[in-house]
Amino acid sequence: MESKIAVIGVGGRTGAMFAFEFKKAAEVLGVGREKEIEIIQKKKLYIKKEGHPAELFEVKAIKDTEFPDGFLPARNALHSNAGGPEIIFLTIKNPVGPAVEYYYQKIKNEKKLPVLVLSQNGLAAGEEAKNGLEKTLGQRANEVQIIRLSLLNAVERKNLESKIYIGYSLPIRLCFGVFSGQGETKKIAALFKEAGIEAEEIPPEKVRDMEFSKLFLNLIGMSSAANGLSLREGFGERETFKEEINSLREYIRVVRAAGGNFLNLSPYPIKLFVFLVEKIPLPILIFFRQKIWTIVSRGRKGKEKGNLDEIDYYQGEVVRLGKETGIKTSVSEEILKRAKNYIDREGCLSG
Q: Which of 115, 185, 278, 285 sits a CA distance of 20 to 30 A from 204?
């Protein structure tokens, strides 16, 4: 039987991408805000995979207020999960706590509670979700397996002629691992495989290091973005590039102080990146900054990050870890401050 997946945040970038790709392998129900569902219903949302023509986004979708209805066969009076999801794929932006409480409150009397998959950036989502489940479900919170996911593809959202285009390259690559809770991961691993997604499973004891490693990638370019520059423009300016490297060095120090390590996340040799940032003198790195930009840009398929509105979960995480470990993070604090000022002045696209 097909898995039943509820993709929460179906109108956003990652939500639209996952919902569209999971159609190959599962029964998918998209869940979103009223405005997002209206866009889908009016056929204004399109998927644009690199090298392919744009395709209309066609996935069954409901408003968040209508959750958990929408699956077939219809839910029966005994609340046996006959029509409910087996997996809740939460793709909304941080923070996740309120959303976890909202959706699990609606299904807390179900016989079997669905697995919760979190695709958010940063380091806080797992603990926030765990706390939200405990607040909502009490002792039953232990029945919910939480899986953390690190997406390695850049996903873009563009508005063109009253239509929205979600763009990404194939294959989709990600890493995932059990953050908390018992249970096998064979079903979700099979789901990724059937959907054509290249997924590497990380052992539970290394999931935190997976998060540290993904955040390292996410921090590259945030100094440039806080200046209103593209990655190429930022790396082209010596002072901005120096700030990029110094912020990464701060981050490496706080991760080490927190007892964390770095993992290679295909196709990124992150441990090599960390070694080079730590050990090579800044003047030499500056000399090779165009080469570094080429490597990073190639990994992102030329797409910009577009997540400046989540700066609290990027540079903000570095500052928070610095306070916890007693490591100075003055560079990250400056980027965080400047990014917030830029957001206040210019605003940022979300999704």
A: 278
